[in-house]
C-alpha cells in the first residue's frame, strides 16, 4: 500500500535531539510528524514503532527519546505529504528543518500543547481521505472512512 501518515508523539521533558548533522531543542508536548511511504506504507510505519533500529532519518532520533503514541495510515497513490504538512502547520508550532528534505515545506514536525487528534481527523475529513489508526500494540484500532458528502 502507498500513502502518507501522521505520527502522534509525546515528549515528556525538554530534550536536545541530536541527528547526524543537526541538533533540535524540543519543548515538552505533543508532536505530529508527517511522512510518506510510496513503496510500503505499513512497513514504514511498523519500523517507526520498533524500539531497535538503525537511526537514519530525523524521526528515528526523536523516537529514540520520545513516546510514539499512534499513527494514522493514509492510503493514497498520490503523494500527499506536503499538502498534509501545510495543513498541520496552520495549528502546530513548526520545528524548522526537521524531516522535510524531499519536499518544499520547511519541516514535517509540529508541536502542540494538547493532543492533536481532533485537528488530524478534521484534516483527513477536509481532504476526504480514508485512514487507519495504528496504536502502540501494533493493532489497527480504528478505521476512518472517506467523507461521502
What does this structure look like?
The chain has 149 residues and is of the alpha+beta class. It has one domain. Helices cover 23% and strands 34% of the residues. The protein has four helices and nine strands. It has a seven-stranded antiparallel β-sheet, sandwiched between helices. Strands 2-3 form a two-stranded antiparallel ribbon. Strand 2 and strand 3 (23-26) form a beta hairpin. Mean pLDDT is 88; it is low at 145-149.
Number of structurally distinct domains? 1
Biggest beta sheet summary: 7 strands, antiparallel
Q: What's the end-to-end separation, in Å?
A: 25 Å
Q: Report the portion of residues in β strands.
A: 25-35%
Give average pLDDT, whole number.
Answer: 88
Which radius of gyration do the C-alpha atoms yield?
A: 14 Å
Order of helices and strands: EEEEHHEHEEHEE
Number of helices: 4
Helix content: 10-25%
SS-based structural class?
Answer: alpha+beta
Shape: globular
Strand sequence of the main sheet, in spatial order?
Answer: 6-7-4-1-5-8-9
Quantity of strands, as a count: 9
Low-confidence stretches: 145-149
